[in-house]
Amino acid sequence: MARLTILFGFLLVIIAIIGYVATGHTHPTALIPAIFGLILIVSGATARTTNEKRRMLAMHIAVTVGLLGFLFTAKALWQQFELWQGVTLPLPAAIEEKAAMSALCLLFTLLCVRSFISARRARRT
Which of 10, 19, 60, 118 is most buried, judged by most C-beta within 10 A? Predict the structure, then answer.
């Protein structure tokens, strides 16, 4: 799961860079997904340890960051559907970037929860 966390972190950084370039380097807020991505990368790197408690803490921090990333940007998923239907909204590049971040964070959170459930079941047996 640590490698997957690092991968999702890099994907968020890439989304931030693409969003920043797409806005013409004028909106530094387009780099916000990079902050979430860097936290995921650090958490994933920390989770690559043999110390079980440290690994669990790092992964719980990562899933919390993923959940917060989803919750902060969830509205953009609906706005993205509106854009696809032809509705004109201000800052469509920002909406697309937030929607991509939201989808990635939701997928990451769901994968983490699934992994946590599997780990708990494995400890019981």
Answer: 19
Instruction: Return the structure tokens found at 81.
Output: 């559907």
**Residue extents of the structural domains in the chain:** 2-124
CB 105 within 8 A of CB 73: yes
Residues 101-123: tens digit of each pLDDT: 999 999 999 999 999 999 888 88
The DSSP-derived string for the chain is -HHHHHHHHHHHHHHHHHHHHHTTT--GGGGHHHHHHHHHHHHHHHTSSS-HHHHHHHHHHHHHHHHHHHHHHHHHHHHHHHHHTT---S-HHHHHHHHHHHHHHHHHHHHHHHHHHHHHHHHH-
Q: Model's pTM, two decimal places?
A: 0.89
* Sequence-ordered list of residues with C-beta below 8 angstroms from that of 7, at least 6 positions apart, any chain: 44
